[in-house]
Amino acid sequence: MMKSVLIQSDFQREWIEKLEGKRKAFEDFASSNDQNARFPYENIQWLVDSGYTQLTLPKAYGGQGATIEDMVILQSVLGSIDGATALSIGWHMGLVGELFEKNNWPQDVLDEFAEAVKQGALINRAVSEAETGSPTRGGRPSTNVKLDGEYYVINGVKTFTSMSRGLTHVIVAAYIPEREKVGFFYMPTDIEGLEIADNWDMMGMRATESHDLILNNVRVHQKYLVEIKGEGKPYQNGWILHIPSAYLGIAQAARDYAIDFAKSYSPNSIEGTIGELPVVQQNIGKMETKLLTARHLLWSTAKAYQHLNDESISNETSASKVVVMNEGLDVVDLAMRIVGAKSLEMNRPLQLYYRDMRAGLHNPPMEDMAYTTIARQTLQ
Length: 380
Fold this sequence. Notes:
Domain Acyl-CoA dehydrogenase/oxidase C-terminal: 246-359
Helix content: 40-55%
Low-confidence stretches: none
Domain Acyl-CoA dehydrogenase/oxidase N-terminal: 27-99
Largest sheet: 4 strands, mixed
Distance between the termini: 44 Å
Order of helices and strands: HHHHHHEEEEEEEEHHHHH
Family: Belongs to the acyl-CoA dehydrogenase family.
Mean pLDDT: 95
Number of helices: 11
Protein name: Acyl-CoA/acyl-ACP dehydrogenase
InterPro entries: Acyl-CoA_Oxase/DH_mid-dom (IPR006091), Acyl-CoA_Oxase/DH_mid-dom_sf (IPR046373), AcylCo_DH-like_C (IPR036250), AcylCo_DH/oxidase_C (IPR009075), AcylCoA_DH/ox_N (IPR013786), AcylCoA_DH/ox_N_sf (IPR037069), AcylCoA_DH/oxidase_NM_dom_sf (IPR009100)
Number of strands: 8
Radius of gyration: 21 Å
């Protein structure tokens, strides 16, 4: 069981127990899913069937009304069980929370989406492109649309579409020439003209199956143009904290494995276990301190967001991802040093934790942009 979880409510306790009850089953799939770059279908289906994917849907729409703090804690636990599952479902969890908190969509479409979530829908944004890189850097999408009567016709290719094989719905970013703006279009993934490429071949987060999304003359009714970039009230999106939450869980898993190894491994060159060696204890102390640093910044930021929900904690939101990633990478490195050469064995999970943690560097916000955002906010 994941250690050092600061349970704040019966709701969190209930769901932590449910997730822990699936730990062995999820972990049993992790290695083969990684090796075969296979999406964790069984894990995701359980999360849908159990009601987990409805947690961040507000109670007013029939969901559980989970807070950002709830999501961060539960996603951290799930990340300690299987990082690819946590990151995949995290995009859905965070996006559902964000959309209903912002409340910028037309009400009838928002109502329609809420019903879909209650029926097991899974959603993610499709915004990245090979030509533009991360959309957070401001590049204009090459994906384009043209209005044909009551329908928009969309053409383009989206990259890094996490959970592509499991998605039922997607929000696609595309450039609208007549408006000279970027629009976001809500659509089901079984719509005519939408295809999923089979081209995800990465070193880390292999089981997310983040294939390209190909749109060939996809026709979307104009009412499903749900957002225009730059329009609407300013919004500080704390739900993006689902990303560092998953990676905090991976770091925790690496720590737990190293601790168990240190307490049990006893080579015949020493008396007792390696956990009694000063050098190992130093690494354990460093590892624990880094985890404490990352955990408390992330969780305190989530708690503050619930009470403030404004620009006053934008620095904490940006810093949380950077701190979790840098401290988490160090934790995995220290764990591998404790375990030694055995940490590189493919039948041990540390090499998987290492590769998956590295992938997190390329999830938003990227480190340089986070520091720039923090600097600008500070200079104001």
